[in-house]
Structures are given as structure tokens and as C-alpha cells.
Structure to design on (1138 residues):
């Protein structure tokens, strides 16, 4: 059965302002590479086989133009990854101002993760590739590849200067504490009790799609966290009176054979 | 890009429709089977019969035959047409009025008595293709009204329409689509899903319907395709969830339809075709003045203002092949796999496998071996397809022919590599690893011979180490085909292994022998000779052993004899009869000795014949060495050492025979002494050792050896004998010996013997034997030791005596303690035997401490039939 045809068990959505690196994160995780990506149009989705489960991961477009589609993508999502750029304070603010309301359509028990991408620009430790396959990354990939094409004139991310390559770090505009604080506000927005929800340290990440730093950890943590959701969904499906025609077809034909012999 | 998925075929040309009337435009179309209806802006409906015509070249075209055209009499454009074929009615929207016309006559259906057949103030309507109502003779229709913000659900019958439901909407709806209970609506500012049965609604996403024309297209059960901001085609299901990623249209898209697995969309000047599987744009067709795009029963029909066209999908297999031709492997696979549900299962499997195999060959051609392998594996490629690319690898006996049509474009590897030897090499390396992996899997079932033979050829050609592993293990290499190949690459050793595997050991040996002899060149094994010996050694074919042992022995007797000596004692190997071997080896004394040594020393076979034979061989060797004019001392010493050792250790050989053989040889006195010793003729032996050899240490060693398994008395006897020999030699033949100056020597030997082995001798006897004149000083060590030994034994025995005594006392003490209680004897007590009283203190105590009269006991003892003696009498008071 080809991947595209499998029915996903659960949905995971990447949200965030344009140019924070949502597509790159997903690409890094799925393809184990940092590739030049173009600004996402509308949205894209990938199917990840995680153990016996199929997880669909939706990569959304950060552009304002496609903003209206966000709540549709989030509908029925089991997890939402809110992504910002650690070198850009506005990208964090946007999460709260624009994107948080999109998640109203997500599942009531949806899990939220807050991810600061581009950590390699501010943090020397993020230069160490943390990909599980351990392949050293081609460091010759240059800055042009990092920056997405500037579609709108109001580009919130300053293009990373070549200085970052020579070891001079960019100023980190968003600290981990800021992200943790945002997480607290999200819980409050959702009317969730902080004590009964997942702790911030478990769902606040700083990653680098470029070096692979923390990327696997992010996705794998999320997959593990949504497993209960999958199991519950499967359980519900078993009890539902809906007959799966594809499944019963096989059974019918078998019966028919027995009958005619 | 540029898959050819669709072809645009004209269906109704302009002439047929409107002739030269310039003002007439097409407004709407409907197709139902072969019937095509066209509504125009001048309020006409045209009815055509559309026939598919396939040319001899397989090219499809349409011929349209005009059946009828009818003026509806409203002077307004015909806005929409929908066929309800079960009712034989066309539902027409014209001038805001929905009404029914007969499909055949195009006559307006008059209202029935029960209700009207007209709906007024309609802006748009849609037919439910998945109606909840089960009645086949009515059609469910969703209607948008220009007057109210509502959606009305009507049932359309042959001659009437009936309102069944009306739901209000938050805004004015402008487009609608219907599936089951679900209405998918485009409102002024957004799309929404509305369940007209329950009234529940679900907002989808915002869209400005005034700015851009919305598209609401039902594409499958409870799934809709919508035009989204930014020129996207969004998918949404009835729950308001998007299950497919959007496709990227242009902003000005007019119409869209799904023809699985493609989304076909029309804008002002192009038809764009996106795949739903990977969202990529696959084909763009130029289409000017595009106006309408609709799908009817799977057929996509387009209209410009003036003409109608059919967008004919090319057969899936053709599309896939096109993709493969342009090496777009992944897309081809996605397309194949995406089409799975449109193709019967068994047919799909065949197709899918074939595509995978072709994809594999494309990767292979690009030297992307990892991908190629994966595709070959998934596609269950007949591995011979791959092997057959490599010239001459398949055995001549193989029945394989390449599949038709071919899976790839390559004639062979050289064609593929275009003469690039490095490429050829990489391909060969890949095949080596691939065949190595699959040869033990089910992939190789049924063609194991072909696979193994090909692998053998590659190994041989590439000088690969695994060649020998392949041949040494279970394999199916075809002999006839492999022989010339291995010979070509001088892999004679390997060829021998192959012969051996096929049971032709003799051929293998002949080949190897030629290599060892230098007739053939193969450096695989520098120790090939040893290998052959080893091979013969464990060969179960005795004839073979007898045939080739000769060569091996000639080459090197020492190693060659291993054939016989190193033969493993396994059950499956027939035993060699030692007598046969000895007879066989007869001519080669060196090998014979080694073999006899193997029998006698290693296997310890206790047979007189072998022992004697070996001893004789040893002796002959020694004799032959001795007979040389200047014997090699080292060799001689070694040879004699062996002989002597055997003579000493073994007691099975025929002593007399050997003795006879060396009777006249004055150089082998030591051996003769040993032989005499074996015969217990110790005096002769010692005589030789002392008088002839004058080898006193040997004489002493002889005594020790000859008595090694006997008691000390025997040893003493021997040593006395030796002493006697020493002394006899010195005494009577005094004069003559003195003349040779040997007397002193013998005396000294005697003294040394005594001083060294004094403990063996009986000192008293020795003193008697020794000549009077010997000085005490001379024998001081001996005497000292003898005196000390005698003293020692005296004291030791005294100590032993004392210890025994004290032990005895100890025991007595213990015994007394055991009894403990004193025994009372008094005049008042009576003797238990005679019952008289005691008159004197001396009594006998019976066991249990009972005192009785002495005489009573004596009496009892003499009377007792057992005559038991009471020994432990005592007299305690």
C-alpha cells in the first residue's frame, strides 16, 4: 500500500509566521536534509509511519494570504507545533496574536508545543548536528539557501548574515523563558489547568533545521505524546457502527467462494 | 512537469453550433451518455449526439450529430442545464426560473395538477449525486434563491418539483454543492458546510466571493473541492477537515473537476492539471476563451464561448510509461500506486510490479544502485533480467529470455556504459553484491543455476575473494559453463573445487597437480601441494588416494606421507589397511619410516610386526649412515637416538633378529647392550658397556633403566652386578689391564658408583666384595652414607617401636577409661560362677566387670565347647 493512500490515525499541524522554518523543520525530519525551500503555498502534508500508526503532519503556509485556511488545517488536530524564530521577537508575538485563535478547531485535548527554530544562529551548541543518523552535515550550504524567497516586502526575519558562519552569533531575541511564558498563556487561553497539563519543559524546544539540532527530539516527543490520542481514536472507531466497505469486501468475496463450491 | 495526462479533443465545432452568427455564445453544457446539450445566450438548447471514433492509429476523436435545437422563449441566456436521465428531463435555469424540459423533444413540461414545475428567483442550483432519498424516480436538488438567504431542497419528479426543506444561511449564498445531507456553500465572505437535516454548520475558511468567483465542487462522497484565497484548490470533507494538501491554481480559475488522480482546472487561457497524489502541476494545456469546465460521469468536458471540447485522459499505463521514459521514476510510482483503487487487484499487482522493475532499471542505468535494488526487490524482479544485461553471464543452458515488452532500453552493459569502463566496473560490483544477497532468498528460486553461475563468473573475472567461498559452499554453478570461464581467468584452484563439488575429484586433482608442477599458473594458493595432500588425506575414494599418493610422495615424501598418517578417523571415511600402506610405501624408506612411526609411536599399535619393522628400518638407516665414508654426525646421532629410544621403549620387537643384524657391528654397542638388557642378559649388556664401550654413565643408566619397572631388590641386584663387573675387571686381569692403564679407571668407576648410588647397595655385602687395599678415604662418601643410612634406619625403627609402644599404652588407657568403674571384691561377695565367697584378692574379671574366681574361669574355659580363650584378664582391686 503506498504511503499516500494510508489513512492517517492522527493529525499534527505546524503553525507559525512565515520564514520561521516550518517546512525546513519538517523536511529535515522527513528527508534528513536541510534543503532550499520555497515559500509554502497553501499547505502540504506528509505521512509518517510511527510504529504501527500513521501520523499526518501538516505543514501550513505562514503567509498572511493563507491565514484563513489555518483553522481548517487545525480542525481535529491532536497536536499543534507553534513555531517561531529565535532571532525574531515578532515571530513569537505573532503566534499569540494570529495563530493561537486558529487552534480553536483543534481537538479539546490537543497538545501544544512551542518551538524556537534557527537556534544555530544564536547558540553554538546547536551547531552540533543531533540527527539520529549521525551523518555530518554539509556545512558549505550557504545562507542563500536558508532564507526563503522574500515574497512580501514586510519580511519579519532579517536574512542571516554571513557573519553567523564565521562564528559571530546573532542576537537572540527570544529566550527560552519567553517561550515558557507563552506556553503558560496558551494554557490559560485554553482554560487548562497548568498542573494537569504537560509541563513547559517537555513541550518547549529550541531547534535548528539547518544542523538538525533537536529536530528528531521534537517530532519524536510529539509522536509519543499523541499516542494516547491515537489509541482512543482507534477504540472509538471500533465501537462505531460504520462498516468499512474496503475491509468487508474481502470477507464477502471469501464467503461467496465458499458458497459456490 | 509535462506529463501527458490529457488530450483535448474537439467535440462540437463552432460551425455546427452557431454557424456564422457572431453574437451567440455558449452559456452552459450538459452531457448524459452520448447526449450533449448546449445552452446558449440566445435562449436556445442544442441537442447533439456525441460519438467516439477511434482511428486506426488508436487516436480518439468525436463526431457530433445535431439532433435538435429549441428556443425556450425567454430571450435570456440559458444559465444552467442538468439532466435527470431517469426522469428523461432536463432541469433548466433560465432568467432566474428553474423548469423542466423533455430530454428528447426539448418541450417544456407543463405543470402537473398537484403542484408547479417551476421555481422562481433562482440564482443557482445543484443536483445531489449522493441522495439520501432512495427513490430512483426523483432527483434531489439544492436551490439558491436571490430573494432570501436560504437554501431550499427540492424533490424533482417527472412533472413537478416539491420543496422538502428550507434552511437559512448567515449570509447570502452564491454557490452550492450537495452530498447526502451536506450542503457545501460559498457565502459572501466564507465557505461553510451545512447539514440540512440537523441544521449544524461548520465554517470552512474565509473567501471573498464578490472579489473572485467561488468554486464549490463535489468530488467524491462527502468531499468537496473549493477555490481558496491565493489561487488554491482546497479539499474539504463534510466534517470541515482537509484530508489532502491543496493544489496551487492561478488566481483566475473558472472551473475545476477531478478526474482521478488529477485535478483539472480551467482559467482564462490555460487548462492546468495537478496530481492529487503529490500536488504537483503535471500538465498545462493552452485553451483560449475558456468558459466552462465540468465533468460528466468521469468525462471532463470544456467549452469556450464558441465550441465544446472533451478532455480525454490518456490511458494510465501510457502516462506511467511516459513518465518512465523521461526517467521520472518517483512520479510514475506515485501515479501507479495512486491508481490502485481504479484498477482490478490482480491487474494492479502485475502493473505495479512491472513499473517497479522498470523504475529499478532506470535507477540502475543512472548507477543509483541503492534505489535500483529496492525497486527490484519490491517489484520481485526476475533476477535474470538483470543478469542478462551483462554479456555472457547467463549460462548457455539457461532457458531465460527477456520479458517483452522490454523492461529497459539497454541492449547490454556496454550499451549502458557507453564504453566507460569505470561504469561497467561499478555495475559489475553492484551485481556481485546484489546476487550475493539474493542467491539464498526466494528471489533465486527456479533460477539458482543461472544466479550462481553468473556470480561465479563475476567473482572469477573480478578476482573476488568470495569465489572460493561460493564454491566451497552449497552452490548450483553449471559446470559446463563455468569451466572455460575459470580457465580463462586462470582460476584453476577454484575450478578444482568446482570439479570436486560435482564429484569429479580426479579431474580436480589432475588440474591441481598441473598447477603444482608449474604447467598451469594460478597463485590462489601457495600451499596447493599441502592442500592436495590434505584433500587426499580426507578423501573417501581409496582408488583416488592410491593413484595420487604416488605423485605426492614423489614430490615430498615427508609431507606426502600425511595422506596416510593424518587421515582423520571418521566413520564416513573408509580405513586404510596398514599392511597395504606399508607394502605401497615399501620402495620409499623415508615415507615408510614416517608411516611406521605414525603406527607405532602415535597410534601405539601393539603389533610385533610394525615394531620390528620400524626397528629394522631405524637400524638400516643407522647402518647405511655408518657405511658412508664420512657420516654426518648430526644425522647419525639423531638416527641412533631414535633407534635407541625405540629399542628401550618398545618390548614388542624381535630382539634376536635385531641382535643378529647388528652382531658384527662394533659401532652399535650401546644398542646391543640395550637388546641384551631386553633379553635379561644383564651381564652381557654390562660387559659391553663397561669393557667394550667403557661408558660408565651409560652402564649406570642401564641399571636404572633395566630395573625401572622392578622392585628395589632387582635394582640392587643389578647394581651389585655392575659393581662386580667393575671389580672383576680390575682384579684378575690386573696385569693386562694395568698395562692399558684401565684398572684404575674401573676402580674409579666402582668408587664413583658406590659414592653416587650408595643407597642402592647392601653395604655389608659391598664391604665383603671390596678389595682389602682400598683406602677408607676413597670410599668415605659411600661409607659415610651407608653408616648414616644404617644409623638412620636403626633410629627410625626405634622411633617406630617407641611410637608403637606409646600407642599401645594410649589404647590401654582408653580402654580403662571406658570401663571407669572400679570392681569391688570383698569376702562377702560371691563368685558368679560358683557362688562361693572370695578368699583371696586375685580374681578374674569377666566382661562387664564381674569378678569371678580364677579357678572357676579356668574350669569354664576347659569346659566350654567353643574353647574360647579369655585373654584380657587382669586383677584390679
Amino acid at each position: 500500500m503506498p504511503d499516500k493512500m494510508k489513512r492517517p490515525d492522527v493529525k499534527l499541524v505546524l503553525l507559525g509566521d512565515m520564514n520561521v522554518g516550518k517546512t525546513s523543520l519538517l523536511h529535515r525530519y522527513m528527508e534528513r536534509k536541510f534543503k532550499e525551500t520555497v515559500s509554502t503555498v497553501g499547505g502540504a502534508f506528509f505521512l509518517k509511519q510511527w510504529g504501527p500508526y500513521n501520523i499526518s503532519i501538516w505543514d501550513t503556509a505562514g503567509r498572511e494570504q493563507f491565514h484563513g485556511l489555518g483553522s481548517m488545517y487545525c480542525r481535529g488536530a491532536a497536536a499543534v507545533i507553534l513555531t517561531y524564530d529565535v532571532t525574531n521577537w515578532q515571530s513569537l508575538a505573532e503566534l499569540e496574536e494570529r495563530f493561537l485563535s486558529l487552534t480553536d478547531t483543534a481537538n479539546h485535548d490537543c497538545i501544544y508545543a512551542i518551538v524556537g527554530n534557527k537556534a544555530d544562529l544564536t547558540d553554538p551548541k546547536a551547531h552540533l548536528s543531533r540527527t539520529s543518523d549521525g551523518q555530518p552535515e554539509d556545512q558549505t550550504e550557504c545562507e542563500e539557501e536558508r532564507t526563503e524567497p522574500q515574497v512580501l516586502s514586510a519580511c519579519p526575519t532579517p536574512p542571516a548574515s554571513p557573519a553567523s558562519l564565521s562564528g559571530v552569533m546573532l542576537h537572540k531575541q527570544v529566550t527560552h523563558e519567553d517561550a515558557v511564558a507563552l506556553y503558560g498563556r496558551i494554557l490559560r487561553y485554553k482554560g487548562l489547568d497548568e498542573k494537569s497539563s504537560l509541563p513547559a519543559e517537555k513541550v518547549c524546544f529550541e531547534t535548528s533545521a539547518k544542523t538538525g539540532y533537536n529536530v528528531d527530539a521534537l517530532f519524536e516527543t510529539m509522536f509519543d505524546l499523541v499516542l494516547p490520542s491515537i489509541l482512543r481514536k482507534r477504540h472509538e472507531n471500533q465501537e462505531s457502527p460504520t462498516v468499512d466497505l474496503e475491509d468487508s469486501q474481502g470477507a464477502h468475496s471469501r464467503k461467496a467462494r465458499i458458497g459456490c463450491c | 512537469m509535462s506529463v501527458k495526462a490529457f488530450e483535448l479533443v474537439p467535440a462540437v465545432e463552432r460551425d455546427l453550433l452557431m454557424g456564422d452568427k457572431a453574437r451567440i455564445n455558449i452559456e452552459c453544457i450538459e452531457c448524459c451518455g452520448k447526449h450533449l446539450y448546449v445552452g446558449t445566450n440566445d435562449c436556445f438548447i442544442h441537442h447533439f449526439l456525441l460519438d467516439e471514433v477511434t482511428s486506426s492509429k488508436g487516436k480518439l476523436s468525436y463526431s457530433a450529430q445535431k439532433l435538435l435545437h429549441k428556443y425556450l422563449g425567454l430571450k435570456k441566456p440559458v444559465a444552467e442545464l442538468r439532466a435527470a436521465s431517469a426522469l428523461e428531463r432536463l432541469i433548466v435555469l433560465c432568467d432566474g426560473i428553474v423548469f423542466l424540459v423533455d430530454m428528447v423533444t426539448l418541450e417544456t413540461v407543463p405543470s402537473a395538477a398537484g403542484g408547479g414545475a417551476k421555481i422562481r428567483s433562482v440564482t443557482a442550483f445543484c443536483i445531489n449525486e449522493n441522495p439520501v432519498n432512495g427513490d430512483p424516480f426523483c432527483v434531489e436538488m439544492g436551490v439558491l434563491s436571490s430573494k432570501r438567504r436560504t437554501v431550499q431542497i427540492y424533490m424533482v419528479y417527472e412533472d413537478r418539483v416539491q420543496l422538502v426543506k428550507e434552511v437559512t444561511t448567515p449570509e447570502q449564498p452564491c454557490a452550492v454543492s450537495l452530498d447526502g445531507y451536506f450542503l457545501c456553500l460559498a457565502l459572501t465572505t466564507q465557505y461553510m458546510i451545512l447539514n440540512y437535516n440537523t441544521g449544524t454548520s461548520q465554517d470552512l475558511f474565509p473567501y471573498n466571493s464578490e472579489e473572485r468567483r467561488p468554486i464549490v465542487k463535489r468530488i467524491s462522497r462527502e468531499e468537496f473541492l473549493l477555490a481558496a484565497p491565493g489561487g488554491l484548490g482546497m479539499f474539504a470533507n463534510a466534517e470541515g477537515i482537509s484530508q489532502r494538501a491543496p493544489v496551487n491554481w492561478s488566481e483566475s480559475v473558472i472551473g475545476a473537476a477531478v478526474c482521478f488522480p488529477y485535478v483539472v482546472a480551467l482559467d482564462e487561457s490555460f487548462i492546468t492539471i495537478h496530481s492529487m497524489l503529490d500536488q504537483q502541476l503535471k500538465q498545462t494545456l493552452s485553451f483560449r476563451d475558456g468558459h466552462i469546465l465540468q465533468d460528466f460521469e468521469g468525462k471532463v468536458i470544456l467549452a469556450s464561448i464558441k465550441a465544446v471540447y472533451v478532455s480525454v485522459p490518456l490511458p494510465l499505463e501510457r502516462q506511467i510509461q511516459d513518465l518512465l521514459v523521461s526517467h521520472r521514476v518517483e512520479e510514475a510510482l506515485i501515479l501507479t500506486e495512486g491508481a490502485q483503487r481504479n484498477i482490478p487487484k490482480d491487474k494492479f499487482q502485475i502493473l505495479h510490479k512491472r513499473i517497479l522493475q522498470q523504475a529499478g532499471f532506470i535507477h540502475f542505468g543512472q548507477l543509483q544502485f541503492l534505489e535500483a535494488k529496492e525497486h527490484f526487490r519490491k517489484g520481485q524482479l526476475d533476477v535474470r533480467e538483470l543478469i542478462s544485461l551483462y554479456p555472457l553471464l547467463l549460462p548457455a543452458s539457461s532457458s531465460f529470455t527477456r520479458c517483452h515488452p522490454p523492461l529497459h532500453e539497454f541492449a547490454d552493459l556496454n550499451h549502458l556504459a557507453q564504453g566507460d569502463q569505470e561504469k561497467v566496473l561499478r555495475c559489475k560490483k553492484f551485481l556481485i553484491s546484489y546476487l550475493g544477497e539474493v542467491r539464498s532468498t526466494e528471489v533465486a528460486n527456479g533460477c539458482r543455476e543461472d544466479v550462481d553461475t553468473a556470480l561465479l563468473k563475476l567473482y572469477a573475472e573480478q578476482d573476488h575473494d568470495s569465489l572460493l567461498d561460493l564454491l566451497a559452499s552449497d552452490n548450483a554453478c553449471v559446470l559446463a559453463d563455468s569451466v572455460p570461464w575459470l580457465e580463462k581467468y586462470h582460476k584453476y584452484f577454484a575450478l578444482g573445487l568446482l570439479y570436486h563439488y560435482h564429484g569429479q575429484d580426479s579431474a580436480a586433482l589432475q588440474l591441481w597437480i598441473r598447477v603444482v608442477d608449474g604447467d598451469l599458473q594460478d597463485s590462489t594458493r601457495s600451499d596447493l601441494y599441502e592442500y592436495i595432500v590434505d584433500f587426499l588425506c580426507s578423501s573417501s575414494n581409496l582408488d583416488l588416494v592410491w593413484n595420487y599418493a604416488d605423485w605426492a610422495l614423489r614430490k615430498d615424501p615427508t609431507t606426502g606421507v600425511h595422506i596416510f598418517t593424518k587421515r582423520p578417523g571418521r566413520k564416513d571415511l573408509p580405513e586404510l589397511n596398514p599392511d597395504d600402506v606399508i607394502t605401497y610405501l615399501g620402495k620409499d624408506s623415508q615415507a615408510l619410516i614416517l608411516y611406521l612411526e605414525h603406527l607405532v609411536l602415535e597410534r601405539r599399535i601393539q603389533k610385533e610386526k610394525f615394531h620390528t619393522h620400524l626397528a629394522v628400518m631405524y637400524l638400516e638407516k643407522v647402518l647405511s649412515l655408518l657405511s658412508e665414508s664420512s657420516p654426518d654426525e648430526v644425522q647419525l646421532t639423531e638416527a641412533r637416538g631414535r633407534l635407541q629410544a625405540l629399542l628401550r621403549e618398545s618390548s614388542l620387537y624381535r630382539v634376536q633378529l635385531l641382535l643378529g643384524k647388528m652382531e658384527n657391528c662394533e659401532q652399535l654397542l650401546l644398542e646391543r647392550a640395550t637388546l641384551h638388557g631386553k633379553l635379561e642378559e644383564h651381564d652381557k649388556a654390562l660387559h659391553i658397556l663397561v669393557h667394550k664401550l667403557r661408558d660408565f654413565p651409560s652402564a649406570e643408566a642401564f641399571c636404572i633403566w633395566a630395573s625401572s619397572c622392578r622392585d628395589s631388590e632387582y635394582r640392587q641386584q643389578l647394581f651389585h652386578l655392575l659393581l662386580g663387573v667393575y671389580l672383576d675387571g680390575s682384579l684378575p686381569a690386573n696385569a693386562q689391564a694395568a698395562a692399558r692403564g684401565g684398572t684404575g679407571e674401573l676402580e674409579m668407576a666402582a668408587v664413583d658408583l658406590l659414592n653416587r648410588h650408595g643407597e642402592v647397595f647392601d653395604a655389608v655385602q659391598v664391604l665383603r666384595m671390596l678389595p682389602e687395599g682400598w683406602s677408607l678415604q676413597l670410599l668415605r662418601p659411600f661409607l659415610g652414607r651407608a653408616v648414616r643410612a644404617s644409623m638412620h634406619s636403626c633410629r627410625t625403627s626405634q622411633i617406630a617401636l617407641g611410637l608403637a609402644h606409646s600407642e599401645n599404652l594410649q589404647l590401654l588407657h582408653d580402654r580403662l577409661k571406658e570401663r571407669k568403674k572400679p570392681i569391688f571384691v570383698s569376702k562377702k561377695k560371691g563368685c558368679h560362677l560358683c557362688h562361693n565367697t572370695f578368699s583371696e584378692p586375685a580374681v578374674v574379671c569377666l566382661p562387664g566387670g564381674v569378678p569371678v574366681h580364677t579357678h572357676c574361669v579356668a574350669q569354664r574355659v576347659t569346659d566350654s565347647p567353643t574353647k574360647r580363650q579369655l585373654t584380657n584378664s587382669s586383677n584390679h582391686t
Summary: The domain at 3-260 of chain A is CATH 3.40.50.300 (Rossmann fold).
